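ingest -> validate -> predict -> emit
validate: passed (alphabet ok, no gaps, 171 aa)
predict: started
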Amino acid sequence: QVKGSDNVDLSTYAGLYHQVATDQTHRIQLRNGKLAVESLEVVATGPNTLEDTRGTVKVEASERDGTIQLRVQPRNDVAFEIVKVEEVKPTNAQLEEYAGSYTSPELGVNYHISANNGGLVVKRRLQSELILAPAFKDAFSNFGTWVFTRDAGGKVNGLLYPQGRVRRVRD
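emit:
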């Protein structure tokens, strides 16, 4: 445990977060007694509040159904929410569930996905292979978050993926 201002346990906030509105993932790490998000260092300013050391971002923490949620308010930008998610390390057998071809007729793309070395490999026509790293349940990241869908029986049946400025394209 690392305690910050007001005896706040900063390690509670370390981990992977999902920004549902944009499908981005953000990693918050504990470094030298402070929380770090990319190049920003964040310190506790109260029992449920955090702020970056430059004063450009304020964060309000809350918990809903046992899940930490952060409301991030950049000084000159629109606030957004991120939700802490449990990171996953799927087995090779679990990765094989995602293997297959995924097509979007609207965009004219066809992705061939295979399991490889703890992640997924995406093969695309006329482009180099893309390696997807496991993020959270049924989600992988690289150039956005690729989220697999499942049917009522739990079988993988689709993929929502980023395509340029378009997000959550369904195959």
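The two ends are 43 Å apart (CA to CA).
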